[in-house]
Specification:
The protein is mainly alpha-helical. Helix content is about 75%, strand content about 0%.
Amino acid sequence: MTEQSPVDERPSAVAALFVRHPLWEDALALLFGTALVALGIAFYTHAGLLTGGTVGIAFLANYQAGWSFGLVFCLVNLPFYLLGIWRMGWGFTLRTGCAVLLVSLLAELTPQWVAFAHLSAVYAALFGGAAMGLGLLMLFRHRASLGGVNILALYMQARFGLRAGAVQMAIDASIVLAAVFVVSPDKVLLSVLGAVMLNLVLAINHRADRYVGVS
């Protein structure tokens, strides 16, 4: 038996990256990923925090006007589907639409399933942000997102090689800082901390040169 050299192993290793996810894996990723995001949203809502992107816009509408988080989240994502179809394709956009609908639904239902007798705002910022980051990571690796800034960040990564997490971190931080007129300064600072945690999860774990998800 001959020993296979590292050079011989390289083609099979590269080919393994492009094995398509079966439909059932994509479905489970959408379900589990959006459930994690909804759990993070429950953390933030209870602590009075917010985050960036279209989720942050939905938070602001909920805090300021009492509008339904799920409804606002669905509506503000509509314009970004055009960018998704144009640059990322119909498959990506359809999976993203399903993810947005699931988050909208689960964000309304999760508070009925999970209640907090006590929740530290710092813990909510850190682990709520981490939960949303992990949920987004699952969606990204199955060629889906939560619309809005997620689509823009993935487009920037695909088009210019910029890390999706780094792009989203910059945009999200700007949105959260703009919320100083809606929530108290301490909540803004904690929200920035949560946004850093969320995007740190993405920046470390989602790189175009390290993982390629095919669905």
